[in-house]
Automatic annotation (TrEMBL):
GO terms for molecular function: endopeptidase inhibitor activity. The keyword NADP does not apply. It holds the Pfam family A2M. PANTHER family: CD109 ANTIGEN (PTHR11412:SF136), MACROGLOBULIN / COMPLEMENT (PTHR11412). The lineage of its organism: Eukaryota, Metazoa, Ecdysozoa, Arthropoda, Hexapoda. One of its GO terms (cellular component) is extracellular space. This is Alpha-macroglobulin receptor-binding domain-containing protein.
Length: 738
């Protein structure tokens, strides 16, 4: 079979009688690569003209069609089916409209409500002969805008102009309209000559409001422990180009810095499962501490913890030796007289904080004297434990030093011992790389500052702590959401222990907000340590650190007085006070407030938030982007080279751009050169390039455009020779534009 296509019909010729024939049309042009799909599958995804099939007796059928005005290109193919010959498909034929008259709409990218808008319509005469009568009309059937300069009529559904065109001439006419609604308005224009519709154009005009609402918030953290903190003149960034009286400003005081780190008493209570006496003593001690901090009247749990503590202490005391050391009979790793004594004394110190036994205190002091005798000349402990690595020596020294520092009432007895051990750790800090050892030593240094002997070099200790914090932050692990943070340690040490000691350092440094993701991660771990065959000084270190964090937040007695002063350019216009027993912690500030001063006195860790909103008139906004276009001298009749430079014009220091698109419409007959588009895609800050309208329009999207000019080159290639050209256009906008 075969087919012949003319301007309004297609003739189909078949080889057999009694065949059923039809045609299928595809809007736009068809890629040659799709032909195989058409031949093998007979897939027609276009519109069929007409929808019926014909019986033919003369081996010929004619189909008449009238494509809608907005379709300028089609691919038409014919098919035939007979019971004898089966299905046959003819070679597809390209059809392109040869328009005598064309019209194009040029409008702004967006306009404001009630703002006059100029609609430019370009009329192109593609014939080499004069057109004596042309009628151009702009339609308004939905009454979405009104025509200006229309003899007072504001409800017209269309406006018409008349004219004539010389051969191959381009003329421009304009309509002045005023939008009546927000959102998108569809503009349609028709051109008639001699009573027939010969051209049609359609585009979208985006209408933005006269004023838009802007919102923002300012958050500041604070932490006071029986002290005072003051912040002067926090500036609210409200510009002058706002609707007077539209400002809404509130001040709210929050008693927690972040919700992800919230802890309750029940979360910190241990289950008190039976295990070795050292771990049981720690469990019971922490349970009694939480019951007291949370003021929980759980008498049964308290009695159980006290009984377990007494039994555990009795058992631990039975492991004591005459020289003050302890020997744990159970098999555990690592095992040594020094290590066993550290574990035992740690449990006894924790228990005696609740028991207050003089006998127990004397036993602890004897053990400390024994440990003192196990200190080497360079300051490290457990010198008699045989061959050990340097990291093992640092770890043991850190744990022994923690024990000495926890005996706050007896520091004077061991000043030289503590100073020597601390100096050893200070000199060894540069050798630490694993998060566990870094965090453990950092915790020891922080405690050294709190339990001062009077001989410490505080500036050096602070310097080492800052170094350790920097090393830890460089090795942190963070979830994709940013809500959890932890550290991966060596295989011999659980990640939970390393992360717990890191949290201890940050809590003692009062970095409560920064520590919140760490707390959130530990809450998802087995921080109430399960029964383990290995006995270490790190028993319940995770639970211990959560309790320390809760002391600064959840269990902190929140007693405070806050003073908030709102100011405008003339001075203080309102003064408010908030206390811990105030019913509402939210204040509504005067609309003219531009700065806020805040002071708080007492004990609390929290944050305050200033929320503000206002209506800003967009009619007073100035141009957002500056566009500079230069045509290079290398341009010729086939290629035109341009340099385009874009610069952002911010209204204030706080305004930024995001995903800026530069939309280039080439002059009539020109398309974007492929090599030029490839070069644009190679630029670092180009997010995407998109070709539209048969490559006559190029959109380039940048991540951001700043106040410094962003320049790039683009080349247009002349595909068709046109006697008259429509000018090209460049539009620049970002995500905040409508």
């Amino acid at each position: 079979m075969s087919s012949v296509l003319d301007e309004r019909s297609i003739k189909v010729f078949t080889n057999g009688d009694a065949s059923r024939v039809g045609i299928a049309a595809y809007e736009g042009s068809l890629d040659a690569a799709q032909l195989n799909s058409i031949y093998s599958r007979a897939m027609f995804n276009g519109t069929v003209y007409p929808e019926f099939l014909l019986h033919t007796s003369n081996h010929q059928a004619t189909f008449h069609f009238n494509p809608p005005p907005h379709i300028n290109q089609m691919v038409v193919t014919a098919f035939v089916f007979s019971s004898n010959g089966g299905l046959g498909i003819a070679e597809p034929i390209q059809w392109q409209r040869q328009q005598d008259i064309e019209i194009y709409l040029h409008i702004p990218y967006s306009a404001r409500t009630l703002e006059p808008v100029t609609v430019d319509i370009y009329i192109v005469n593609n014939r080499a002969q004069k057109v004596d009568f042309v009628l151009v009309e702009l339609l308004n059937k939905a009454n979405e805008f009104s025509f200006l300069n229309n003899s007072g009529r504001t409800d017209a559904t269309k406006k018409t102009v008349y004219g004539r065109l010389q051969p191959n001439e381009v003329q421009r006419t304009e309509f002045l309209i005023r939008p009546k609604k927000l959102g998108s308005i569809t503009l349609k224009a028709n051109a008639y000559t001699e009573g027939s519709v010969i051209a049609r154009a359609e585009t979208i005009l985006r209408i933005v409001p006269e004023s838009v609402q802007r919102t923002g918030s300012i958050v500041r953290l604070f932490n006071v422990d029986n002290s005072m903190q003051q912040v002067e003149d926090v500036k609210i960034p409200i510009p002058r180009t706002i609707d007077t009286g539209s400002e809404k400003i509130t001040f709210s005081l929050n008693r927690e810095q972040t919700q992800i780190a919230s802890l309750t008493g029940s979360m910190l209570l241990d289950k008190l499962v039976q295990t070795d006496p050292f771990t049981m003593a720690m469990k019971a001690s922490l349970t009694l501490e939480v019951l007291s901090l949370a003021r929980l009247g759980w008498n049964e749990r308290k009695a159980l913890a006290e009984r377990m503590m007494n039994e555990s202490v009795t058992k631990v005391m039975s492991y004591g030796n005459a020289d003050g050391s302890f020997t744990i009979p159970d098999r555990h790793q690592p095992s040594s007289a020094c290590w066993d004594t550290v574990i035992a004394v740690q449990a006894l110190i924790s228990s005696n904080e609740h028991l207050g036994s003089d006998q127990l205190e004397a036993t602890i002091l004897n053990a400390l004297e024994w440990l003192k005798s196990r200190q080497a000349a360079d300051g490290h402990f457990c010198k008699d434990d045989g061959e050990q690595t340097e990291l093992e020596g640092i770890e043991k020294t850190a744990h022994v030093l923690l024990i000495f520092q926890h005996m706050a009432n007896h520091l004077w007895r061991f000043v030289s011992v503590i100073n020597s051990a601390r100096n050893y750790l200070l000199s060894s800090t540069s050798k630490l790389h694993e998060p566990y050892h870094l965090a453990l030593v950092g915790h020891v240094f922080q405690l050294s500052l709190q339990r001062a002997t009077g001989k410490e070099n505080r500036s050096m200790i602070n310097e080492k702590i800052n170094h350790i914090l920097a090393e830890l932050l460089a090795r942190k692990q963070r979830s994709s959401s940013g809500l959890k943070m932890w550290w991966n340690s060596a295989p011999s040490t659980p990640d939970l222990d390393a992360t717990a000691y890191a949290l201890m350092v940050m809590t003692s440094k009062q970095f409560l907000f920064d520590a919140a993701p760490i707390v959130n991660w530990i809450k998802g771990q087995p921080y109430r340590r399960a029964v383990s065959s290995t006995i270490t000084p790190n028993s319940h270190v995770a639970l211990r650190t959560l309790i320390d964090y809760a002391k600064q937040t959840t269990f902190q007695e929140k007693r405070y007085e806050a003073v908030i002063m709102a100011k405008d350019k003339s001075g203080v216009i309102s003064r408010h006070e908030l206390q811990h027993d105030s019913g509402s912690q939210v204040l509504v500030l005067p609309a003219t407030t531009r700065t806020v001063s805040f002071s708080i006195n007492g004990t609390i860790s929290g944050a305050y938030t200033i929320n503000y909103s206002y209506m800003e008139s967009v009619t007073s906004q100035v141009q957002k982007f500056d566009i500079d276009v230069l045509r290079y001298g290398t341009s010729n009749e086939d290629y035109t080279d341009w340099r385009v430079c874009i610069r952002f014009l911010p209204k204030g220091f706080y305004e930024k751009t995001h995903m800026v698109t530069c939309e280039i419409a080439f002059p009539t007959g020109y398309i974007a050169l492929d090599d030029s588009v490839d070069e644009l895609n190679q630029l670092d800050d180009v997010v995407a390039t998109v070709l539209k309208n048969d490559e006559t329009q190029l959109s380039i999207t940048f991540e951001e455009i700043g106040v410094q000019q962003k320049c790039f080159n683009v080349t247009g290639f002349r595909r068709n020779v046109e006697t008259r050209q429509l000018p090209g256009t460049i539009k620049v906008f970002d995500l905040s534009d409508s």
